[in-house]
Amino acid sequence: MKELLVKNIHATSLDAITIPTLLDEQQIPFQKIDEVNWQAFSYRPQVTFRIAHTEEAILLNFRVKEASVRARYGEDNGSVWTDACVEFFVIPGDDGVYYNLECNCIGTILLGAGPERSNRERAPQVVMDKVLRWSSLGRQPFEERIGECSWEVALVIPYSAFYKHQIISLDGKEIRANFYKCGDELNTPHYLSWNVIKAPKPNFHLPEFFGLLRFE
């Protein structure tokens, strides 16, 4: 199981567009999302992420280079996993409920919660509006563009976005999580993970294969 130390950054009033520069200044290193768990989907785009946290939020920055890119979904809670998509699954509490935050390449998100893959509760828009997003490709939807493309997104995820819990702080906490890259309907479908998944077919909703995040 992979483990990662999540640095505590003292910063307030953050905007998503400033996150890459802030993480550069704080020398937060990138981690690879490069586990190919299913040989039927062997394509491995170049994908990295980095993570930090403040008193109020988790900060995420993904960078991707892949053979094609699509952003059909421009409204939250759509099928963003079928676009060029990065994902963060996390268990912030002690009750086994995990959140799936899925973000396509223009910053459109899906946010759900529950203890298993079925019967997940989607977040209301008022909650998703709290998640600040920035994308290097802008925010307007587009159909698939074939040809090598590099893009990045940054997210500010306030603890209040974990709407099934009352998370005040993650200081000193150890929580389980995994990070993914997918594109179900792209020209070359793929399903990469940070921590290895041992399952017969693509499935990201397996908390038993989450890695460990240690928050400063």
Structure description:
The protein has 216 residues and is mainly beta. 5% of the residues lie in helices and 43% in strands. Strands 1, 2, 3, 4, 5, 6, 7, 8, 9, 10, 11, 12, 13 and 14 form a 14-stranded mixed beta sheet that branches. It starts with a strand and ends with a strand.
Order of helices and strands: EHEEEEEEEEHEEEEE
Shape: globular
Largest sheet: 14 strands, mixed
Radius of gyration: 16 Å
Note the beta-strand portion.
35-45%
Helical stretch count? Answer: 2
Distance between the termini: 19 Å
Low-confidence segments, given as residue ranges, are none
Mean pLDDT metric: 97
The count of strands amounts to 14
> Which structural class is indicated by helix and strand composition?
mainly beta
Query: Portion of residues in helices?
Result: under 10%
Helix/strand layout:
Blueprint: E1 3-8, H1 19-25, E2 31-32, E3 35-36, E4 46-53, E5 57-71, E6 85-91, E7 98-104, E8 109-114, E9 121-122, H2 125-128, E10 132-135, E11 142-158, E12 174-182, E13 191-193, E14 211-215
